[in-house]
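sry for the spam today, last one i promise. struct tokens for design, 272 residues
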């Protein structure tokens, strides 16, 4: 029986420990091809920056007890997916997985996430896709040297890779987003969620003396612990301490009542 083919990528870069924890877990599920950005691309969303070269660096890595050729690509996560489909894989994979991300991807912040951006690019091409993220302490920096336990996230990566491969096509489900809480174990329950209606990663004004000083816009995690809505990914992670599984759609159209919106638009302003 032919094993399913899996393309694995991330947004933390080819050296991320989360990437290799996922590779090890997925090796038990199918034939894994790793193609990941050559450097850190957190916050890239589904972007296609023109400044990238697209260079593909072929390397070797041992996971699943075997030596594999892996690929470090100079590109954003979404670009890496396309380079893999066009130039690395002979045929499209059965599943595209992004992760395990260093830090949770919940609430409205998912549109910023390179991890989510990668799977949305795969989904736009008609492929099954899965994004997996591990919650990390708010004060922990995105540093490859940080000690993060990816064991539980690796377990759920394998579990939902198997479920994704077995799941019949669902209308309006482009990808699954899995977020694993701090302290989770393989026995931690999972629950189906929707995106929280909160920004979650709130931007903070940068501090600098001159406009020419190089800075990044910092973010802090912010949400209403007591007011968060049950059923959301933030509620599952922080209140229930469960693994959050969110079906994502590529359709960004509002679910508002169109008749009401049209009525308001037509009677507002000078035009009719």
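last one done:
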């Amino acid at each position: 029986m032919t094993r399913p083919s899996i393309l694995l990528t991330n947004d933390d870069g080819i050296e991320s420990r989360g990437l290799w924890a996922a590779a090890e877990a997925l090796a038990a599920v199918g034939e894994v091809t790793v193609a990941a950005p050559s450097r850190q691309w957190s916050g890239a969303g589904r972007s296609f920056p023109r400044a990238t070269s697209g260079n593909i660096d072929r390397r070797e890595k041992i996971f699943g007890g075997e030596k594999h050729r892996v690929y470090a690509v100079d590109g954003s996560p979404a670009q890496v997916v396309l380079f893999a489909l066009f130039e690395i894989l002979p045929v499209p994979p059965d599943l595209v997985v992004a992760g395990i991300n260093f830090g949770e991807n919940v609430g409205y912040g998912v549109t910023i996430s390179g991890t989510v951006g990668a799977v949305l690019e795969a989904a736009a091409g008609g492929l099954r896709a899965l994004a997996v993220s591990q919650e990390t302490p708010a004060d922990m920096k995105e540093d490859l040297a940080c000690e993060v336990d990816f064991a539980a996230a690796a377990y759920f990566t394998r579990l939902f890779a198997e479920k994704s491969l077995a799941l019949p096509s669902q209308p309006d489900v482009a990808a699954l987003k899995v977020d694993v809480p701090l302290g989770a174990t393989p026995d931690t329950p999972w629950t189906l969620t929707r995106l929280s209606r909160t920004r979650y990663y709130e931007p903070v004004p940068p501090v600098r003396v001159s406009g020419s000083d190089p800075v990044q816009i910092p973010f802090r995690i912010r949400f209403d612990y007591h007011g968060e809505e049950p059923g959301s990914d933030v509620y599952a992670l922080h209140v229930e301490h469960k693994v959050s599984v969110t079906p994502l759609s590529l359709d960004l159209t509002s679910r508002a009542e169109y008749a009401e919106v049209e009525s308001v638009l037509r009677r507002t302003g000078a035009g009719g």
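The helical segments are 17-26, 77-88, 114-124, 151-166, 233-240, 258-267. ok im logging off now
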